[in-house]
Specification:
One of its GO terms (molecular function) is ubiquitin protein ligase activity. The chain has 142 residues and is α/β, with parallel strands linked by helices. 49% of the residues lie in helices and 8% in strands.
Amino acid sequence: RKEYVDLYVDYVFNKSVQKPFEDFMQGFLRGCPARNWKMFFPEELQVLLQGCKTFDWHLLEKNVVYRHYKKLDQTIRNFWTVFHKLPEEKKKMFLAFLSGSDRISGYELECFRFCIADPQVENPDESFPYASTCSLILFLPR
């Protein structure tokens, strides 16, 4: 029985996916040669390719640039007060709304900057917040 289980596990996890994995690896290495990846430890490579899963949200707040706002404007203070009270899952949903991804690639949190801008609409009470994901701008009506 043990031999059967060992052979079955080997088939499911290795032999049955060998050809598709080799095809994937060949294509991947064509665009990303292996010599470039050898300098990374596996954990570093995972973060580089998949992005960070945990964040220092206060550092994110510190890196924000404001357009037509000042850091001490009531709208901005209210935004950050509410944001920091959100559960982790909702904060990541905000990040996805802002950037199109709930992760920040690589080790870029220290460098990740986005902008909160006043869309300067005539009646802010009739406008919703929206984001420009390409430019990393959150348009936040007053």
